[in-house]
Automatic annotation (TrEMBL):
Chain's gene name: rfbC
Function, as annotated: Catalyzes the epimerization of the C3' and C5'positions of dTDP-6-deoxy-D-xylo-4-hexulose, forming dTDP-6-deoxy-L-lyxo-4-hexulose.
Keyword set, alphabetical order: Isomerase
Residues in the signal sequence: none
Pfam family membership, one: dTDP_sugar_isom
Annotated InterPro entries: RmlC-like, RmlC-like_jellyroll, RmlC_Cupin_sf
Protein name: dTDP-4-dehydrorhamnose 3,5-epimerase
Catalytic reactions on record: dTDP-4-dehydro-6-deoxy-alpha-D-glucose = dTDP-4-dehydro-beta-L-rhamnose
Root EC class: isomerase
Alphabetized GO MF terms: dTDP-4-dehydrorhamnose 3,5-epimerase activity
Pathway in which this enzyme or protein is active: Carbohydrate biosynthesis; dTDP-L-rhamnose biosynthesis
Natural source organism: Novosphingobium album (ex Hu et al. 2023)
Quaternary structure note: Homodimer.
CDD domains reported in the protein's UniProt record: cupin_RmlC
Length: 187
């Protein structure tokens, strides 16, 4: 596996090696010791999956607060997504900045998003399935978000991004300027 640091400290794109022949391929997609060496000492305690039927489905931007703040290891197993992380660490030089990676089964790549970031994605093809492992279990009282189209963040979503696909919760998320300082670089 190759770990590629993105423009915001802490974000990693993981690119697996594939060994292929006429039968298909084999790929190691996760090894705990190597992952911890690059991402830090964390435990992945829950795995989630979502199916988005429509092209342009936007999910996010979501995060959970302490003590249930989640790191996420995101992988697209069918279809393709434009996957986004936004830095919410109030004392970070990159506070409010975003980075994105296109994830698909063809590339097999994954995105590591540590705690302190909001996460969201837009589907690029129909019937897209996204899997993600997280470092804390889901906690409804700690479930938060930020507006997917906040101009202060300025995410350059793909043309397919369809606001009509937003959940009721995501239609009402606050702006970055209205968030309390939930996260810091110190943890």
């Amino acid at each position: 596996m190759q770990f590629v640091e993105l423009s915001i400290p802490g974000l990693l794109e993981i690119q697996p090696k594939r060994l292929g022949d006429e039968r298909g391929y084999f790929s190691e997609i996760f090894r705990l010791a190597e992952f911890r060496n690059r991402a830090g000492d964390c435990d992945l305690v829950q795995e989630n999956e979502s199916l988005s039927a429509r092209v342009g489905t936007v999910r996010g931007l979501h995060f959970q607060t302490v003590p249930f703040a989640q790191g996420k290891l995101v992988r697209c197993t069918r279809g393709a997504i434009f996957d986004v992380a936004v830095d919410l660490r109030h004392d970070s030089e990159s506070y409010g900045a975003w980075a994105a990676v296109t994830l698909s089964p063809e590339t097999g790549n994954q995105l590591w998003i540590p705690p302190g970031f909001a996460h969201g994605f837009c589907t690029l093809v129909p019937d897209t399935i996204v899997n993600y492992k997280v470092t804390a279990v889901y906690s409804q009282p700690d479930d938060k978000g930020v507006a997917w189209n906040d101009p202060a963040i300025g995410i350059e979503w793909p043309a397919q991004a369809d606001p009509e696909t937003l959940s009721a919760k995501d239609r009402q998320q606050p702006l970055l300027a209205d968030l309390p300082p939930y996260f810091s670089m110190k943890g």
